[in-house]
């Protein structure tokens, strides 16, 4: 070999480093290539939009899976969120809800109007049934069968109305959770939930629980109002079944009783004030309540909460 011939740095005689060996004993393996991104592209939000950091920083990996997949922090027993669970202040929750409401106020006002319209339709039917009984009684031709039939019809109509109102309430909660993720709720996304059957089952469970609570001198209703505000949140946001959603809400409130109870008292107060202003204030206080509870739920469970930058509200509400 010529003196000028370069030597292989990996030859032992050259004193160079030993080349990486195949564990099975073969040819040297090439250097490992950089690992590709886990998600193969830009991070996506829970709703298929570009995700933002919960605190306004760089994009984070999606909290939810892709189409047809269960949320990464959803489902029974699944880890929920990447942010540490934390408590909250009442003023913080109300302030967050107010800013989200003012940034999308037209959608929320129309949503409350829809809820009122649906409730009025079913209540009007029940009122008509009772009016029929009163008129028949005044004529003296009412019979027990007539009264029983009208009462059954009113009860059935009321049950159907209660279920529909519960579904609308769950849709409103889902819209509020969307806002907490940093995306404006719209009519195009309002009805996009994948748990309608479980929402109906949950509504029936809450109706039964309310009936049992009424039998306990009303104390059960008070307990239900205090400890079950996050039941539908667990259904639509964590894909829990009805029973686990209800018991999970009881546990969550029990573990954070002070903060949640103070928020509930504050929301009760502002809704009473809203009802006193000819009921018009409810068009503001009901959305504010939904948004504040969504903020509280995400904070207590470690779910994503989008930051709101200081400055004027976004121009033009999104309603489509």
Main attributes of the structure:
320 residues; mainly alpha; 10 helices; globular
Low-confidence stretches: 34-79, 311-316
Order of helices and strands: HHHHHHHHHH
How many individual helices?
10
Which percent range fits the helix content? Answer: 55-70%
Report the oligomer.
single chain
Number of strands: 0
Strand residues, percent: under 5%
Apparent shape: globular
Structural class: mainly alpha
Q: The biggest beta sheet, please?
A: none
Structure at a glance:
The chain is an all-alpha fold and 320 residues long. Helix content is 57%, strand content 0%.
In words, what does this structure look like?
This protein is mainly α. The chain has ten helices and no strands. The radius of gyration is 29 Å and the shape is globular. 28% of the residues are buried. About 16% of the residues have low confidence.
């Amino acid at each position: 070999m010529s003196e000028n011939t370069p030597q292989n740095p990996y030859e032992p005689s050259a004193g160079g480093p030993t080349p990486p060996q195949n564990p099975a004993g073969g040819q040297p393996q090439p250097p490992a290539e950089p690992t590709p991104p886990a998600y193969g592209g830009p991070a996506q939000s829970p709703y298929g939009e570009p995700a933002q950091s919960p605190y306004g920083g760089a994009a984070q990996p999606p909290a939810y899976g892709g189409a047809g997949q269960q949320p990464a922090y959803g489902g029974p027993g699944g880890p929920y969120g990447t942010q540490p669970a934390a408590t909250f202040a009442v003023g913080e929750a109300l302030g967050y809800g107010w800013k989200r409401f003012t940034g999308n106020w037209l959608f929320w006002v129309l949503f409350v109007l829809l809820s009122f319209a649906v409730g009025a339709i079913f209540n009007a039917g029940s009122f008509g049934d009772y009016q029929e009984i009163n008129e028949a009684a005044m004529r003296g031709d009412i019979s027990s069968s007539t009264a029983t039939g009208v009462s059954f019809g009113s009860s059935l109509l009321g049950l159907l109305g209660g279920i529909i109102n519960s579904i609308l309430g769950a849709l409103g909660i889902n819209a509020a959770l969307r806002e907490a993720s940093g995306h404006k709720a719209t009519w195009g996304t309002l009805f996009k939930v994948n748990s309608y059957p479980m929402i109906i089952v949950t509504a029936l469970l809450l109706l039964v629980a309310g009936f049992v609570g009424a039998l306990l001198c009303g104390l059960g209703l008070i307990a239900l109002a205090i400890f079950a505000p996050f039941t539908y949140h667990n259904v639509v946001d964590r894909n829990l079944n009805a029973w686990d959603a209800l018991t999970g809400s009881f546990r969550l409130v029990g573990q954070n009783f002070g903060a949640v109870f103070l928020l509930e008292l504050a929301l009760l107060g502002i809704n009473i004030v809203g009802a006193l202003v000819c009921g018009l204030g409810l068009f503001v206080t009901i959305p504010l309540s939904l948004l504040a509870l969504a903020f509280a739920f995400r904070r207590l469970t470690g779910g994503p909460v989008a930051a709101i930058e200081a400055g004027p509200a976004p121009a033009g509400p999104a309603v489509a």
